[in-house]
Write a structure and sequence with these properties.
alpha/beta; Nucleotidyltransferase, domain 5; six-stranded mixed sheet; five-stranded mixed sheet; 7 helices; 31% helix; 27% strand; binds beta-D-glucopyranose
């Protein structure tokens, strides 16, 4: 597939690097700029342009963000400004950067990287890639094919999004031990298993770096795996998405 460039837009940082799409490896510095406090489309596009310029990149760019994205249009905004809703983000970035752009959900991007080059490589059946960070992201694959925008972190639990209860950020916020937090993740997994009966669940995101502290406390029927890519999965998968257009 060759080389491409990936950008991962998060609530606190926007990160990007050139990527070898055959291995998913970043082939240059992972350059990070804090997300502007007023994370409107124009402000974010300025930061994305700075990251691409920093690397002197002039080819296609894949961009991942914490939103439902359908045909380039942003439909939800978690941890970024609501002004994104309804914006054709793909057109906005393509115009700003002057190159071809693909725009997709950040967990879907992370899932693509895991399924092509990581823990889910060559795995058939129903596979869920779950990212545990500030929120909970989800990417659903059936025989390797992505079903985009599943947003399982927004399943309702006790009157709010289940990510408010079980994301990695809830562990810090509520001062939970790993076991206490794993019990919450287990509740999330039980809801998901009732709905989708996945064959495998791959856990990524920031909390996957300490997976040995919690993943074996879960009770899923599905086989559990730790993601191979931790923080670079969104960048790698975004780059792969633009290459595979
Ligand atoms: C967003 C998802 C995103 C996840 C991880 C959730 O709050 O709704 O789109 O994938 O956070 O960033």
């Amino acid at each position: 597939m060759g080389f491409s460039f990936g950008i991962d837009i998060g609530g606190t940082g926007i990160k990007g690097a050139p990527v070898d799409c055959d291995s998913g490896a970043l082939i240059g510095e992972r350059y990070r700029i804090p997300t502007p406090s007023n994370s409107t489309p124009d402000a974010v596009a300025d930061v994305v342009a700075k990251i691409v310029d920093h690397h002197g990149w002039s080819g296609p760019v894949g961009i991942a963000m914490p939103s439902v994205v359908i045909d380039g249009v942003v439909h939800t905004a978690a941890n970024i400004d609501d002004a994104w809703i309804g914006v054709d983000g793909r057109a906005l970035f393509a115009d700003r950067l002057g190159v071809d752009v693909e725009l997709l959900n950040d967990a879907d991007a992370a899932g693509l990287a895991e399924m092509r080059c990581g823990a889910g490589r060559d795995v058939a059946g129903v596979v869920l890639v779950i990212t545990m960070g500030t929120g909970i992201g989800s990417a659903l694959f059936i025989d390797g094919r992505l079903v985009p925008n599943t947003e399982l972190g927004h399943l309702e639990f006790a009157g709010e999004s289940i990510e408010a209860y079980a994301a990695a950020s809830a562990r810090d916020r509520d001062g939970l031990s790993w076991d206490q937090w794993a019990a919450r993740v287990d509740e999330f997994c039980a809801v998901v298993e009732r709905l989708l009966s996945p064959d495998m669940m791959i856990f990524g995101g920031g909390a996957s770096k300490k997976a040995h502290k919690w993943i074996d406390s879960l009770h899923t029927r599905a086989e559990r795996r730790v993601a191979d890519f931790a923080n670079s999965a969104g960048i790698a998968g975004a780059a792969m998405a633009v290459r595979s257009q």
